[in-house]
Amino acid sequence: MIETGSEAPGAPSAGTSREAAIPVLLLHGATSLHDIWSPLLPLFSATQPVIAMPLPGHLEGEPVALDRPVTIERLADDIIAIMARQGVYCAHVVGNSLGGWLALELARKGFAASVTAFSPAGSWPDERAFLRIARAMVFACRVFPLLRPLMTPLMRLTAVRKLLFSSQMKYGERVSVAEAQRMLLGVCHCPVIPPLIASFGNGGGLKPMPPLDIPVHIVWSGEDRVLPREVFMPPMQQALPWAAYSILEDAGHVPMYDQPDAMVAIIERSIAMATAD
């Protein structure tokens, strides 16, 4: 868990502004880790509390019991419980990929003061599109632990980092050696992914949601190769036709290293809309 900002996160209290009291909660994608938000953290206002949390069932995240079905709703409930133990009962929720889907579910559950979702998962046009993504994720979780001893030293080569992350981001060479090795470690420690994927295949995609009284901004990366916007954004728009949509140009599916300044500007606009009198 990474926490920044001079204000302690938590619920609004007497004598504090809503903007100062409500933190930004950053949720990463499947097989990723909370470090992925590092390029954004120095760009937020020093007075804005920011929490980058590891998702349950991921590296450094709280364990998830696998003796019962793992669903997106259950993960959202787990996040709410984790935040409650830290005294946080509301947040401006920002998510990428799986984290974007979770951000929307947290809004459905009344936890979010605003939502900014970057290339959120949860919508697919047909079973074929779903299976392509699902098989790739399960394959990575099974194969990367076997290849890690070979791949870890290769991360020292800029060309290798750029190639390895080419499907995720446009400028993979911006990832440092240490960050790349951490990312690889993260892929190797995601026990929650196979059962979560199984729940998606049982009709567990994003369910339509009625209009909410909070800002919900869905931002698709212009060069997303994992969830190409021409395929995956239309069904999202059908499920949430009332949300705001925009395109983040010159960025891949995981855009934190591609466009950190633009991402923070978008997030701050959502916060400003939520806190406007």
UniProtKB/TrEMBL annotation:
The keyword Hydrolase applies. Gene3D superfamilies: alpha/beta hydrolase. Pfam families: Abhydrolase_6 (PF12697). GO terms for molecular function: hydrolase activity. Keywords: Hydrolase. This is Alpha/beta fold hydrolase. Residues 24-265 form the AB hydrolase-1 domain.
